[in-house]
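Posting this for the archive.
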Amino acid sequence: MFIELTDHLRCPVAHAEQFLVLLPSRMDGRRVLEGALGCPVCGLVVQLAGGIVDWGEATASAGHTALGAEAVAAFLGLSGPGGYVALIGGVTVLAGALAPLLPGIRLVLVNPPAGAHDSEEASILRAPSLPLKSASMRGTVLGSEYSESETWVSASIGSVLHGLRVVVEGREPRGEGVEVLARSEECWVGKKG
C-alpha cells in the first residue's frame, strides 16, 4: 500500500468518518509492505501483509468486466498527474492496462480477484464496505457485482471529489448527487455535483 493512501482511507465500520493511524513495520520506498492500521473511533486494528490491507469479510471478485481500459480512461476524463482512482470489483482486472493511460495517478483496487498483488501503481484493499473517505478520489469505477447495491453506488459517488466522475458498470443510473453524463448497455458515467 502506498503510504500516502492512508490519508484517503476510512474505517469500514458504520460510524463517523475519521482518520486512520498507520504503524508500518516494513517498507519498500513509499510502499508499506507490513504493518497495522487502526481506527481511533472503534478501536479496530487490521494488519497489512504483502502490502494488502484486509478488513475481512470481503468477497474477492471473479474478475469479469465488459469494459476496456481505453474506454474507462476516456470516461474518467482525467488529465495531469496526482491523486487516486479507485477500481472496485471485477473492473480491477483493468489495472495493468489502465495505469499507463493515467500517468502519475495511482490506482486503488478494492476487492480484486484472489491472487492480486500490491504494486507501485496499485494498492489493494479488501473490505466489506468501501473504505475510502468522502471526496478523496479523482474518480471511481464500480464493477457490475456492486452496481445493484445502493450502499456501494452511494459510497462510490461519495468518495469522488466534486466535479469529477464515477463510472458504474450497470444499466440503470442510481445514486444521489451525481449528474448522468452518458449511459449505455454496459455502463453509465456521472459527474459528482
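The longest helix spans residues 150-158. The mean pLDDT is 95.
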